[in-house]
Amino acid sequence: MVKGEDAIRKKKNKANRKKMQKETSNVSARVAAIIATKKRRLSGKRRMCQGMCYSLPTPEDPFNDKHGKMDSRPKETKKPVPSKADGRVSINRDNVPPRKGDPGCNHAKKEHQEQKKIKAVNLENEQTISRTIDNVGQKTSIKPGKAKIQLIGKNGAVSAQQGQTFENSGCPSKFLILCLNSIQNVLRHDGTFSGEEDKPLFVDAWGVEFWRCYSIGKDILETSGACSTMEQIAWMASTAADTIARKEKEGLSFTSPFLLYLVPSQEKATKVRSVCKPLKALGIHTVSLHPGASLDHQIHGLKSCEPEFLVSTPERLLELVSLKAIDISGVSLLVIDGLETLFKGGHLDIIKSIRKAISANPQTLVFNDCLNYASVPVVQNLLQGSISRLSLNDSITSQSACIIQSVQVCALEDEKLSKGIQILDQVCGNELGSDLFKVLFVVGKESNFHELVTAVTSKGYSISANSIWSNSEVQKNSKTGPAVFVINMEHISTADLGEFEVVIIADFVLSIDYYIEILTRMARCTVNGKLHSFLTREDAHLAGPLIEILEQCGQAVPEHLRNLCHSFSMLEH
């Protein structure tokens, strides 16, 4: 009788067991069982009950540490199909939902739970950043999004990039915060960080406000101080690095430096480069140009690298541009630090030449305290169009930067309205003010109010005599022609004065506080603001405080105003 296959296999297994029992001194029982199981698996023949007794080792779990809780069925690679709910859904082998208790179902549940944990961590991080920014004093709306991490730069430098678009994000991206933390850690290690030890850079009030102004896309006028601090430099560099990462993710490339940072001295250039240097590990290279190094050495260095950030003094940069050693035509962000110092050093013409060498329309940031009235035309030349004002200083000088104040002394009360109408004609007829159609008249007497409305209407101007109006109404009227808005002095505190470049105070204020309120709230979106005021001898008691404000803002004081103040002081004595 011929022996069956089972009998043959049984005899062979018995021989194998005897053989392994002889080798028990070499390996443990557990390892011996694994070896035997491997041999059975390679032979291609198994017992029917084998899967029910225990699971086999796999490449994912060679030592069977998970005790059979993995999916033992072979997996099929399928393309993900988008879903309305999660954007990704897995399809099993028979296109039928897995049943409860199926090993594939358990594995899918584990993957789903892991995805939920990842989403919860991302949402928690974004909400933490949002709460931190809100604590600075601003309101932020959060739109959760998935974050992607990519490898950029040389030598495998890691940088995190935000998956959602920059315009729709309600808070700074994770990559921006990564840049800030990198800068802060290096500066603290070197002992050059001057901020609070327990306060991270990404909660800096100035930095958050700068990020919001930068996100709008307008030019920025910073009036907190004459030059930037280390914290401000860190925020500007990190924001620029974040923009570069987003643009490269979209497939864009830069042939010119993205950031051009003009500084007044070699010491300032060294300071800026020391702050930007930690970003080199994230793929952002910074080059500093100043007269302290030889021109040939800098030309040779520029040929061997393509920097993303360029920090330079104006005169050395203009030399290199004239020699075609560096191309700055595609600069996207221009920072002019210490404009007052550059103006006093006679670098105004050099800055104009550098600006002409930039063929693109870069977003410009100017640091200037505007204490010197002579520097106002320079700022007006650099910042043309709508701007964003950035200042955490509530002083009159900071809030009224680049607003020209004009004070005239009238002999009679009737001269105020006539001179106000003349100024209105000059503003609307001026070529530079051809688009300057938002003019505000401030009156204090009811009789003057009706007289002014009649006079302005007779000139052909459209007039709005409402005490309170919206920004949309201001913009709508300004598009149809020269619109004049008239307001009573009592409603100044409730009116929005930020849209008006020109304010004419026909009846001077009863208190100097009203004048300060108008001065610090008008012309928020331009550097061409003008405030015209008219005084008579009845307003002599306000001449002294008004002179102090003009001198504090670095503006010229009319001789008639000084005489009025002197005559009032003589009467008091």
Automatic annotation (TrEMBL):
Biased composition (Basic residues): 9-20
Entry keyword annotation includes Nucleotide-binding: yes
Bias-annotated ranges (Basic and acidic residues): 63-79
Molecular function per GO: ATP binding; helicase activity; hydrolase activity
Coiled-coil residues: none
Keywords: ATP-binding, Helicase, Hydrolase, Nucleotide-binding
Keyword Nucleotide-binding applies: yes
Domain of life: Eukaryota
Region (Disordered): 1-30, 55-115
UniProt-listed InterPro entries: P-loop_NTPase (IPR027417)
PANTHER family: DEAD-BOX ATP-DEPENDENT RNA HELICASE 50
UniProt-recorded name of the protein: Uncharacterized protein
